[in-house]
Write a structure and sequence with these properties.
Length: 174
């Protein structure tokens, strides 16, 4: 299997790697006001684990993000997104991703999984853009697109972007 940004000999060693929440970032990009204004921000990772299997296709990722950590740089908007109108963090404090398979080719790798947000679970594909391995450490980058309507978050249609582009920068240690 080919993973972008890696040579076959530099694939991570099999084992369990704990995601470092401080060194890892989940960014999002969307649009607001009928698509006129860009909105960017972050979520914090609470905890997670990458399990690298002897056969890379059997590897897995399990990660939890703190829904209340939503931050876009605008306190009023952030508080509203955390409310029951959007993320409802009081009822759904975590956003979870659990992979179900890794597929790869010479063009790259895709992590198939399920994302659970607001109590709704939907399939999501994460395109792995790079993986770097050093001793007992993995640094991986990826992208995904999420449709908030699929998770039942339909408030302010038109005023709030429907799709979020997610960019992941994950560091994990063994």
């Amino acid at each position: 299997m080919a993973i972008p940004g890696t040579a076959e000999q530099s694939l991570p060693a099999a084992g369990t790697y704990e995601i470092d929440p401080v060194a890892s970032t989940v960014r999002f990009d969307t649009r607001a006001l009928f698509g006129l204004l860009p909105v960017r921000g972050t979520f914090a990772i609470s905890h997670g684990r990458i399990t690298v299997a002897e056969s890379p296709e059997e590897s897995s990722v399990d990660v939890a993000m703190d829904a209340a950590s939503f931050e876009s740089g605008n306190q009023q908007r952030d508080d509203h997104v955390r409310s029951s109108d959007y993320l409802d963090v009081a009822r759904h404090p975590e956003i979870n991703f659990r992979s179900q398979g890794l597929e790869g080719s010479a063009q790259g790798a895709t992590l198939q999984g399920e994302l659970t947000a607001c109590g709704v679970t939907q399939p999501v594909l994460v395109t792995i853009t790079s993986v770097a391995c050093e001793d007992r450490r993995i640094a991986a980058n990826g992208t995904a697109t999420m449709d908030r309507y699929a998770f039942g978050v339909t408030k302010a249609k038109g005023m709030t972007g429907r799709r979020l582009k997610i960019t992941l920068e994950v560091v994990a240690n063994r």
